[in-house]
Write a structure and sequence with these properties.
Elements: H1 2-29, E1 42-45, H2 47-50, H3 56-68, H4 71-74, E2 78-80, E3 86-89, E4 95-97, H5 105-115, E5 119-125, H6 141-151, E6 155-159, H7 168-182, E7 187-190, H8 198-201, E8 208-210, H9 219-229, E9 241-243, H10 256-268, E10 273-275, H11 284-290, H12 293-299, E11 308-313, E12 319-325, E13 331-337, E14 343-348, E15 358-363, E16 368-374, E17 376-381, E18 385-393
Parallel strand pairs: 1-2, 1-10, 2-5, 5-6, 6-7, 7-8, 8-9
Antiparallel strand pairs: 3-4, 11-12, 12-13, 13-18, 14-17, 15-16, 15-18
Bound molecules: alpha-D-galactopyranose.
Length: about 400
């Protein structure tokens, strides 16, 4: 049993080392680069909480809130309207916004968001219609890209509904090129749910790509997306990120411990951090979770490596150690308790790459320096919870 665990851990460490090598050579091979998203995009998106119920009033209220509640200053930058803002095309083929919900038009709204020191994002679909049946971008790539650029759009999420018979890499590349021709820097968010292996062509095509189906506001869904998204860590690097979908923090379906684990794991995976709650009226606890600067710093670390699973403890894999190497030589570590019992979890330095001797440990949720530890660190972890620390070698 012990030797089984040792072998398994050695294998995980080898995978981690190989991953870093692969990521480095992939960076050299990359041809396309629009210079954007050097760290994972952060912002807010309407879908998880509001669905189709979007309006200029909502977006303005969200921008006001983000500019004053600390979110903007913590790095949440893009305010993105998801599906349902669009209703038709005019006779020139130009996309038309819902004039009841967006009476002054989209350009005026983008100007407002910009006036708050934020960036503005919008949603479309590479197929003929969006997932909610609104006009899609298929065969309108150039006119849509030009329209968005004229409106001052900084970020486009492009979905994949109603795209039967189309080839995903081809369609997304068409829109990538149309965006490039506008001359405006626009982040491209690919959203085909991991159905065409986007971790292979996404880095040449967009700045982020979904690796999974839609998140639901419950623990099992969040954990399922973790297990999927973590398989593709070798593809992530500055400018190109795996996207395990938007955050559910504050939407009410998980406990606060579960939401802390959610943000810890997304940051460990260098995932885009797109808040998906009603940020105009969140509780102080939700705000504290979303605005945890120690955790955000891990997500936004300039080394740009997606963290990985380095150890599983206990039968059935309920206790896990995740690790992300950081620019300054320290390691972010998440001790994840997937079980329903409070349990101690420990991490040995030898599982964290070439870490030896004594190291300083900082708890990223209690914001306390725990002191100097040699060779290992352990902590008691709440059920469905995570402890997140930053381990910095000494000397
Ligand atoms: C798909 C996407 C979601 C959301 C909806 C909107 O399901 O994956 O993120 O954009 O469409 O209809």
């Amino acid at each position: 049993m012990i030797s089984h665990h040792v072998r398994r851990a050695a294998r995980l460490t080898a995978i981690a080392a190989a991953t870093i090598l692969v990521a480095t050579s992939a960076t050299l091979n990359r041809v396309w680069d629009n210079g954007l998203a050097r760290t994972p995009p952060m912002g807010w998106n309407s879908w998880n909480h509001f669905g189709c119920n979007v309006s200029a009033e909502l977006i303005r209220g969200v921008a006001d809130a983000m500019a004053t509640n600390g979110m903007r200053d913590a790095g949440y930058q893009y305010v993105v309207i998801d599906d349902c803002w669009q209703v038709a095309r005019d006779r020139n083929g130009r996309i038309v916004a819902d004039s009841v919900r967006f009476p002054a038009g989209i350009k005026a709204l983008a100007d407002y968001v910009h006036s708050k020191g934020l960036k503005f994002g919008i949603y479309t679909d590479a197929g003929r219609r969006t997932c909610q049946g609104r006009p899609g971008t298929y065969d309108h790539e150039d006119i849509d890209a030009r329209t968005y650029a004229e409106w001052g759009v900084d970020y486009v999420k492009e979905d994949w509904c109603n795209a039967e018979g189309l080839d995903a890499p081809t369609q997304y590349a068409k829109f990538r090129d149309a965006l490039a021709r506008t001359g405006r820097p626009i982040v491209l968010s690919i959203c085909e749910w991991g159905s065409n292996e986007p971790w292979k062509w996404g880095p040449q095509t967009g700045n982020l790509w979904r690796t999974t189906g839609d998140i639901e506001d419950r623990w099992a869904s969040m954990i399922a997306l973790l297990d999927l998204n973590s398989q593709y860590n070798a593809s992530a690097r500055p400018g190109a990120w795996n996207d395990p979908d938007m955050l559910e923090v504050g939407n009410g379906g998980m406990t606060d411990d579960e939401y802390r684990a959610h943000l810890s794991l997304w940051s460990l995976m260098a995932a885009p951090l797109m808040a998906g709650n009603d940020v105009r009226s969140m509780s102080p606890t939700t705000r504290d979770i979303l605005l945890n600067r120690d955790v955000i710093a891990v997500d936004q670390d300039s080394l740009g490596v997606q963290g990985m699973l380095v150890e599983e403890q206990g039968d059935g894999g309920g206790l896990q150690v995740w690790m992300k190497p950081l620019k300054d030589g320290s390691r972010a570590v998440v001790l994840l308790n997937r079980s329903v019992l409070q349990t101690p979890i420990s991490v040995s330095w030898w599982r964290l790459g070439r870490l030896r001797g004594s190291a300083r440990v900082r708890d990223l949720w209690s914001h306390t320096d725990l002191g100097t530890f040699s060779d290992h660190f352990s902590a008691t972890v709440a059920p469905h919870g995570a402890v997140m620390v930053r381990i910095t070698p000494q000397g």
